[in-house]
Amino acid sequence: MSHFLATPDVAITGPMISIAHISDIHLAPLPKVKPWELLNKRITGYLNWKLKRQRDLNGEGLVALVSHLRAQEPDLVMVTGDLVNVALDAEIVRAHGWLRSLGPEERVCISPGNHDSYVPGAFEKARKRWAGYVDGERSDPEHFPYVRKIGDVAVISCSSSVPTPPWMASGLFSEGQAARLASLLTSLGREGYFRVVLIHHPPNVEADNFRLGLHGARRFRRVIKDHGAELILHGHTHRSSIHTVPGPTADVPVIGVAAAGARIGDPVHDPARYNLFRIEKHGDAWSCVMREFGYQRIGSEIVMRLQMRIY
Q1: Under CATH, what is the fold of the domain 2-309?
Q2: What would the mean pLDDT of 126-150 be, rounded to a whole number?
Q3: Tell me, what's the pLDDT at 142?
Q4: Residue 191 CB partners (closer than 8 Å, separation 6+)
Q5: Which residues pair with 292 in a beta bridge?
Q6: How do the domains of the chain map onto residue ranges?
């Protein structure tokens, strides 16, 4: 994509920062379910798991993928949601153990997904259990967005995670969150940070879908157009993808990553992957190179599938 070409080489003025993006873990297998835990939306999720998802999202490559990611020694790992499947209490506890295997709280941050809020009250339990993994600097008492700063990079974690009716997997980006994101983007931009925005649901027009998409996507895009960002990362689609949304002066890259819990050798869906971004300040301009690591449709090796210069 030609509009992501590198700027001319000039003197490096800041240290290189490495950030990794992983999403849609869907930790498997599903724990034993008590009958009364299915007296809500979980019954549809449980049936979907038994009929389809326990095959497509079996997590067989997840341990090796996380080991490969950790070997890259990123400064920060960003998880854009769906750690769990139907948000059982046992799943939330298991997800905390998985987060600890990913890294310490100060090196990992979460933007929650729709499965993390599968039923009312589920994410409130998860947020308490996952604690420092889903927190950072905030401009007011509202939890989202929050900010993690690493050198010249500021990661802004939004939330599109809300409970929805059966057969719905949509998200919401509210007016209040939009106002807070606008304020953060303005102040962080003024301070010269490379601004990375996290959200589970894709905010680009191409992914617009009433049942699955982001309600408030136009609101999100308006904030980006008015206040700017350098990079937007999402999950939800279980696909590797690259889009853009308009910024104040140029298009802003919107990058999705395949589900980390996807099975190896899936002939239809993208196998498990993660993305690694290396960011440096060159004078007054940025350099950002993305590498995608993961499984191919054939074979069981983790390889570098793509290397692309974003800036």
Answers
A1: Purple Acid Phosphatase; chain A, domain 2 (3.60.21)
A2: 94
A3: 87
A4: none
A5: 275, 306
A6: 2-309
Q: Cβ neighbours of residue 235 under 8 Å, at least 6 residues apart?
A: 23, 24, 80, 81, 82, 113, 200, 256, 257, 259
Alpha-carbon distance values, 273 to 100, 122, 235, 305 (Å): 19, 27, 11, 9
Residues counted in the chain? 311
Q: pLDDT tens-digit profile of 171-223? A: 999 999 999 999 999 999 999 999 999 999 999 987 778 899 999 999 999 99
Q: What is the pTM of this model?
A: 0.93
Pairing mode, if any, of strands 171-172 and 214-215? parallel
State the DSSP H helix or E strand holding residue 222, giving kind and residue range, or none if neither: helix 217-227
pLDDT band at 282, cuts 50/70/90?
A: confident
Dist. CA 267–CA 200, nearest whole Å: 25
Contact (CB, 8 A) for 299 and 310: no
